[in-house]
Amino acid sequence: MKIVEVRHPLIQHKLGLMRRAGISTKEFRELASEVASLLTYEATKDLQTVEQCIEGWAGPLTVHQIKGKKVTIVPVLRAGLGMLPGVLDMIPAAKVSVVGLQRDEETLKPIAYYEKLTGRMDERIAIIVDPMLATAGTLVATVDMLKAAGCKRIKGLFLVAAPEGLQRIEAAHPDVEIYTASIDERLNEHGYILPGLGDAGDKIFGTK
Ligand code: URA
User: The Phosphoribosyltransferase domain covers which part of the protein (predicted)?
Assistant: First the structure.
């Protein structure tokens, strides 16, 4: 399975700022988006391009353009919305497929309460965005949903990932590619990542 911990100095610096206790909503939100941009840069390195002949300012020339139906970004409600602006800064023409999952109180399994996917999912690379890859319950369910819609190529961008979650997604969907700014130490007894970022959704939206 492809798991990339993107150890770029800019990413490490920004993530370090995000880990400070008492960080403001404004700063956390800005940094989440900036790190998302940098992860997008890394995760799209292998996109295929095609040559195109254009009329340039000094005459005809050949340029490279991204091939095919391109990508759809898949923010997972609600915290994934915090990474969306940064991803769209890098891929402004991307279609956005929003998903929302919540835990079923009886089975404890994540079930979809919202699913609005763009068309031709079978022709697109789906890029899931969610700040925290913790237990991977939500990620496994999101990938199940995308595969059911025909997706063949799926990547996931996470600010922070826990080893437990990485193991789980590798067992369930080894074909998914993971890009994260940090593989942290572990989950605590409440399913929070340590050292982690705390509740990323609350920090992005300024709730609680
Ligand atoms: N969700 C969060 O927001 N933080 C964690 O540490 C784990 C899941």
Answer: 7-207
